[in-house]
Structure prediction request, 149 residues.
Amino acid sequence: MFGKTISYEISTSRENKLGTASGELVGGNLSMLYSLLGSKSTIKTNRKILFFEDLDEYLYHIDRMLMNLKRNGYFDTLEGLIIGGMTAMHDNKIPFGNTTKEIILDHVSEYNFPIVFNFPAGHLNDNRALFFDRRLHLEVGENKTHLLF
Prediction:
C-alpha cells in the first residue's frame, strides 16, 4: 500500500497446478464478477492473474458462474488463477457430485496456467490483503506458494 514490497508464502494444496506467472492482479468475489458480465464494469483478464473467493453459495451456482466466466473468455489468456476462501458452500438434498475444487478444476482443466487453492483471502479469519491492479509475481511449487507484489 505504501510502495513497499509485499510477499506472502503459504502452504501448498495438492490440487494446485504448479508453475510461475506474472501479471496484474484482478478479481474479487465470484458472485460479483459473474453479475458484472456483459456490463461496462466487467473486468478484463487478458494476460492478468485472476483472484476470486465466495461465501455461502450452492455448488451448482459455483458451476454456473464458472461456466459463464469461461464462455465469456475470462480464462482464455489468463496468466494465473488464485482461489481464496470458498467459505460455507452448500450442496442440495440431491448432491451435486463434485466439491468446489473439483468444479473449478473441471472448468479450467484445458488451460495451462498455475492455480493456487486456499489462498487466505476472502471471508476468513486469516484474511491477507491483496492489491488489485498491481503487478504480481506468482510461484506455485510442490511445497509452497509464493506471491510477491
User: Anything to note?
Assistant: Residues 25-148 form a domain with the Glucose Oxidase; domain 1 fold (CATH 3.50.30.60). The CA atoms of residues 52 and 86 lie 9 Å apart.
